[in-house]
Amino acid sequence: MTTPAGWYPDAQNAEQLRWWDGEKWTSAVHPNPSDQAPTEHLSDRDTVSATGGSKGRKWPWIVGAVAGIVVLLGIVGSLVSPDENADVAASTQSTTARSSSAPASTTIATSTVLLPPPVQVETVETAAPTTLVPVVPRTTQAPAPAPGMTAGQRNAIRSAEQYLDYSSFSREGLIDQLVFEDYSFDDASVAVDSISPDWNQQAVESAQSYLDYSAFSRQGLIDQLVFEGFTLEQAQYGVDSVGI
Asked: Is the torsion defined by CA of 51, 53, 55, 58 positive or negative?
């Protein structure tokens, strides 16, 4: 059975009490009230015998009451653990130390306002107005056939227009194409001369068509255009126009 914590007579000094925490003896001591009460009682009894009378008989009662109060105070004090007293004292000292050591300081928060960078205004140069030149679409449609044309000549004109709609020809090349289609040379010549396209422009388009699928030197491209029936002047114009 474990002895409960409390004040018990000190084995080393019978005039004092020592605190037992339930497991071991501590260094906390307290005067033994049971040793003081008899001493005071003996002193009062001597006083009564010396003075005598009824007045002297009151002293033992008063001394006994005082001794009882002292014993009661000792019992109340024993109910409070010395460890609790030490904790309360340490807490009070810590609070007092923090209150006295912490200086009152006022921190003023400052903020820095960053201004945005200056706006750079770009100078926009106004371009000079450009005069647009209307592009006149190229047409290969021949004027209305003159009165007196034969049916073969009118059909040759329609065929020549259809060829020029999807490819470029020289005058000689277009006549040869119509003759290949079984038109007579006279009807083919009349049809081509009736349409009368821009042969220089036809040379430019033919030169570009050759460059789209193969590479040519300047003289080689001129020779190819002449071979297709363009005149030398028309071939040179076409090659110069494509930048060779």
From this structure: positive
Q: φ and ψ at 37, to 5 degrees?
A: -60, -45
As given in the structure block, the two tokens for residue 123 are: 């100078």
Q: Which of 82, 50, 88, 43 shows the shortest CA–CA distance to 66?
A: 43
| Angle (deg, nearest 10), helices 218-227 and 199-213 | 120
Determine the structural domain holding residue 228 and report its residue range: 198-244
Q: Let me know whether 180 and 234 are in one domain.
A: no
Kind and range of the H or E element at 160? helix 151-166
Q: Please give the span between the terminal C-alpha atoms of the chain, in angstroms, as a whole number.
A: 123
H-helix or E-strand spanning residue 177: helix 171-180
pLDDT digits (tens, 9 = 90+) for 46-105: 433 434 444 444 444 554 555 566 556 655 555 545 455 545 444 555 554 454 444 445
* CA gap 24, 79 in Å, rounded: 17
- Higher-scoring residue by pLDDT: 204, 136: 204
Q: Are 191 and 229 found together in one domain?
A: no
Q: What one-character DSSP code corresponds to residue 149? A: -
Tell me how many domains the chain contains.
3
| Residues 192, 144: Cα–Cα separation, whole Å | 13
